[in-house]
Every structure is written in structure tokens, then in C-alpha cells.
Specification:
Blueprint (H helix, E strand, L loop, with lengths): L3 E6 L3 H12 L8 E7 L2 H11 L3 E4 L8 H9 L6 E6 L4 H9 L4 E4 L5 H48 L5 H10 L10 E7 L2 H7 L2 H22 L1 E6 L4 E7 L6 H23 L3 E5 L9 H13 L1 H4 L4 E2 L11 H14 L7 H18 L3 H18 L9 H7 L4 H20 L4 H12 L7 H7 L4 H12 L3 H19 L4 H8 L4 H12 L3 H10 L1
Parallel strand pairs: 1-2, 1-3, 3-4, 4-5, 9-10
Antiparallel strand pairs: 6-8, 6-9, 7-8
Helix pairs in contact: 2-3, 8-9, 12-13, 12-14, 13-16, 14-16, 16-17
Pfam families: GGDEF_2, HTH_18, Response_reg
Protein name: Response regulator
GO biological process, one term: phosphorelay signal transduction system
């Protein structure tokens, strides 16, 4: 039940004592009101009211230094929700008129003080406060609903627009209607992509995903507003789009610098407030609504290059990968040769070496993201088709995850899936253990618990823990820690990540614990391992 706090302001001790007894008396046992404090003058009343922020202020008018009406006039704007009740020995109309002008809730004569009248005044003040709070709550909900509707409308419109469903004129009309602030004479587009999206979808329910995406859209809008003019919108899946304009007098070099700075701000703010990693790709300078779609396509192409470069990067057209159509047949040929060697009897080591060799060559030649992802899906199905023992293993979740992963992680996931299939066939691992290992590989960036992994294979934690140790000859925590450190070694082969970046990528709580695990499993510190890598 709502309890309303009250402050008394009066310079007469007898009145203060009478009111204190009133609040402590049996008539106030309903518990709806409590006495928060008392003051002896208008100045003291202001200081105490600003500190306590009472719901109701009961005050005398005539007091030394500052009278009650002057105090109310000063507090009215600073405590807009407070209700004021005047207790006065004067029934002068002049005072009453000023009280009405200050929107005072009630005006009572305090000599003699009628407690029933005061109680009625408090009840009326509480009712007014309750009605105000209810109205404000309804307005907030309405505003939230309107913002959410605008968010959904904007998302749908720009999804359709960028797929060619609307023309430039329709885009201009939409921008005017929804007051989208963009100077179309000179602007650029940027695309933001959430990294590790499969983990994001596993970690959060659909409702929480929508809330976090809405939050990310707001972060983009605020970051744009601090840098220039423009707007942002969520798109489908893990993508967001933004448009930003700066003065057209900027040189090409200055424009590039502005894009890099805005991109770094986006990456930093999303990391700071949502604890998520994003990549950002920019277009070149564009002009007019007619270039909007092409501007988006260029930004998307830049962002797609993070497929090879890695997560958390800012990519502009000057840094974009130059793809060559003649390289695609070579990549397909290499993949075909790899598949030819995947035959019954292949060892785990041979499979790992084949995939590593393909990764090395494909990273140099490079195919566009969508084409490479399609090729790897076909590779997975072909490999399964050749190995009869692997055909029962489901790849639906794996195929869905591949769409959102960078190239190296795609290959890593395919490798782990095929290795798990091989181990399942050769060592007769229980199906639940195979599924658990695949779940661990797909959620390496999360802080994995026994409960989570057991839920993923539909077993109770106690039974799953016992089964895992029996099948794997090591406990779940030990296995997960080992795989995380092995993954960190793979990452350090690619790039000189900091310890904190590795912790974020592997779902490890803090740097000290990571270093302890690293040394325990590898026999050297991360720093020593980096030196070895650089010497090779």
C-alpha cells in the first residue's frame, strides 16, 4: 500500500507537538501517512523539503523570515508533485486568494484545530497524488507504446525500402512525416552488425532480444546526434542501418576520419552499455534520396568484410576487400579436393589438417560472404553424405548459425561438428554427450554452467554431470575450461588479442582467472605464448 510522506512547517511548538501526536495517534493507524520531518521556518522548510521530497507539506502562513506562501511559491516548481495544506490562525481572504493562486490543496483554520477536517484534507491530497501518478503512468505507457510503434514502423519501412519496395519520393515523404533529421545533400550510410548473434539468440528469450535491439537502436541514434545529423533503424536479423550527415565542405580525408570516429564510438558505446560486440561498415559520400539504397549496399558490403577481418571493427570503402571473380573457381576447386580426401577411415588429425589448409588458402583468395557461406553449407552436407555414420547427425541448428558467423568461426564450427560425429562413431559416445559438446562449441562466448548444458540435452544436472565424467574421463568444468583455452590459442594465432578481449570472447569472468587457467593448461602465461607466436 502506498504510504504518503508528510512535512510540517510551523514556528509554534504547541502546534508542532499537536500535529506530531496526530500522526502518532490511533486515528492514523491505517498507515497511509507518515511524518517525515518538521521545520520551524520557511527557510528551514525549503531546505528540508528539498532533502526529504515529501508528498504533502502542511505549513503555517505567518512565520519569521519567510512566510508559508513565499515558501510554497519557491517549492512549487522544484517539487511539482507535492501537495500543500495550509494551517493558519487567519481566515483573511488575501491569504486565501494567494493560496488558491499557488494551487494549495486545502486551507484550514488551526485554532481550534479540527483533526477530522485535517484527516479529510490528507485523504483528498492522497487521492490527488494517486490520480496524478496514475495519469503519468498512463502517459508514460502511451509514450512507450508510441515509440515502440514508431520503432516497428521505421524497421518495416527501411527493410522494404532497402529491398527496393519504395522509391526516393516515398523515402523523402516518410522522413518528413517522422521528422528524420538528415541533410540529404551530403551524407553516408553505415551498417551495424551484432557479432556472435547465435549466442545472443541462445542467451536471451525473444522478448529480451527485442528489448536489447531497441536499446541498441537508441544508442545508435544518440551517438549520431552527438556527431552530426541523421537517424538509425533496426533491420532484420542482426543488422541495423544508420544515415549520418556532416557539412559537405569536409574533404575526403576529413570525411573518412569522421566515419572512423563515429564507428569507434558506436562500437565502444554498444560494448559499454549492452556488453555486446558489433562491427560497423560505412559507405562513401552520397547525395539525395535517390542514392539511399546504393549507399546502403555499399555500407553492407563494407560491413560484410568483417567476415574475414574479425569482430568489433570499423570498415570504410577505402579499406574494403577487393573481390575478384576469377578467385571463386579456385576456392571451389580447393574445397572439392578437400572433400575428395574425406573418406571412411580418415583420422581426426587428417581432417583437422585438411580444414586448416583450406582455411589458409581461402583466407588469401576470398569469396564474398554469402557465396562462401553457401559453399560451406554444401560442403557440410557433402561430407555427411560421404560418411554414412554421420548422416543421422542433425545440421539444422548449425546451418542457421553459419549465416551470422565470420569465416574462421564457420570453419571451426564445421570442424567441431565433424569431429564430434567421428568421435560418436569411433568411441560410441552417448548421443547426449555429442550434443553437449556441440552446444559448448556453439556457446563458447558465454559463461556456461552445468544447468545450461544439462538443459540443452534434456537431462538433470546431477545425472548429466555423472554421465559426462564417465564418458569423457573429465568433469564438465575441466572440459569447458580446456576448450576455452584451446580456443584462445586459435584466436592468438590470428591476432594479438589483449587478455580482456580474450575474456570477452570466451565468456571468462576476469583477466586474472583467465591467466591462471591459461598457465595451468598450456604451461606458460599468455604473454609468454604471444612471444612464441611472434618468433614463429
Amino acid at each position: 500500500m502506498r504510504v504518503y510522506s508528510c512535512l510540517i512547517v510551523d514556528d509554534e511548538d504547541l502546534i508542532l507537538q499537536r500535529l506530531e501526536q496526530f500522526f502518532a495517534g490511533p486515528g492514523m493507524n491505517r498507515g497511509s501517512f507518515r511524518l517525515a520531518g518538521k521545520a520551524y521556518s520557511g527557510h528551514e522548510g525549503i531546505a528540508m523539503a528539498l532533502e526529504l521530497k515529501p508528498d504533502i507539506v502542511i505549513t503555517d502562513i505567518v512565520m519569521p523570515g519567510m512566510n508559508g506562501l513565499e515558501m510554497i511559491e519557491q517549492l512549487r516548481n522544484r517539487l511539482p508533485h507535492a501537495n500543500f495544506i495550509i494551517l493558519s490562525a487567519y481566515s483573511d481572504f488575501h491569504y486565501a486568494k494567494r493560496a488558491i493562486q499557488n494551487n494549495v490543496s486545502d486551507y484550514l483554520i488551526k485554532v481550534p484545530l479540527n483533526e477530522d477536517d485535517l484527516r479529510d484534507c490528507l485523504d483528498k491530497a492522497a487521492k490527488r497524488l494517486s490520480e496524478t501518478e496514475q495519469k503519468e503512468s498512463e502517459v508514460r505507457e502511451l509514450n512507450i507504446s508510441m515509440l515502440e510503434n514508431q520503432h516497428r514502423i521505421r524497421k518495416q519501412f527501411f527493410t522494404d525500402l532497402l529491398q527496393g519496395a519504395h522509391g526516393p519520393q516515398r523515402a523523402a515523404e516518410f522522413a518528413a512525416k517522422f521528422k528524420l533529421n538528415l541533410q540529404v545533400e551530403s551524407y553516408c550510410c553505415f551498417v551495424v552488425e551484432m557479432n556472435d548473434y547465435p549466442s545472443f539468440r541462445t542467451e536471451y528469450g525473444l522478448s529480451d532480444q527485442n528489448v536489447l535491439k531497441y536499446g541498441l537502436s537508441n544508442i545508435l541514434e544518440e551517438t549520431i546526434a552527438a556527431a552530426g545529423a541523421g537517424f538509425a533503424s533496426e533491420l532484420e536479423g542482426n543488422r541495423f542501418v544508420g544515415f549520418v550527415s556532416w557539412p559537405s565542405r569536409h574533404s575526403a580525408l576529413e570525411w573518412e576520419r569522421q566515419c572512423q570516429e563515429l564507428g569507434r564510438q558506436v562500437v565502444s558505446h554498444v560494448k559499454q552499455y549492452l556488453k555486446r560486440s558489433v562491427s560497423v561498415g560505412f559507405s562513401g559520400r552520397s547525395h539525395g534520396w535517390s542514392e539511399l539504397v546504393n549507399s546502403y549496399r555499399q555500407a553492407k558490403a563494407s560491413c560484410d568484410d568483417s567476415f574475414y577481418w574479425g569482430a568489433g571493427l570499423v570498415i570504410t570503402p577505402s579499406q574494403s576487400i577487393q573481390y575478384h571473380a576469377e578467385d571463386e573457381p579456385h576456392v571451389k576447386t580447393m574445397l572439392g579436393r578437400m572433400l575428395q580426401q574425406i573418406e571412411p577411415g580418415i583420422t581426426e588429425q587428417e581432417l583437422v589438417e585438411l580444414i586448416s589448409a583450406f582455411q589458409s588458402h581461402a583466407s588469401e583468395l576470398k569469396m564474398q560472404r554469402e557465396a562462401m557461406t553457401k559453399l560451406l553449407r554444401e560442403c557440410l552436407e557433402t561430407a555427411k553424405g560421404k560418411m554414412r555414420a554421420w548422416q543421422s547427425a542433425s545440421t539444422s541448428e548449425l546451418n542457421a548459425a553459419l549465416e551470422y558467423l565470420p569465416f574462421r568461426e564457420q570453419l571451426s564450427l564445421i570442424k567441431e561438428h565433424l569431429l564430434a560425429c567421428m568421435k560418436s562413431n569411433t568411441s560410441q559416445l552417448r548421443e547426449e554427450i555429442v550434443k553437449a559438446k556441440l552446444y559448448i562449441e556453439r556457446n563458447m562466448a558465454k559463461k556456461l554452467s552445468l544447468q545450461q548444458v544439462a538443459d540443452a540435452v534434456n537431462l538433470t544436472p546431477a545425472y548429466f554431470s555423472s554421465l559426462f565424467k564417465k564418458e569423457m574421463n573429465q568433469g564438465l568444468v575441466e572440459y569447458v575450461n580446456q576448450r576455452k583455452i584451446e580456443r584462445s590459442l586459435e584466436l592468438l594465432q590470428q591476432k594479438d588479442y589483449t587478455n580482456q578481449e580474450l575474456c570477452d570472447a570466451l565468456g571468462i569472468a576476469n583477466e586474472a582467472y583467465f591467466c591462471t587457467l591459461f598457465k595451468q593448461i598450456t604451461g606458460c602465461s599468455p604473454k609468454q605464448y604471444r612471444r612464441k607466436v611472434l618468433q614463429c
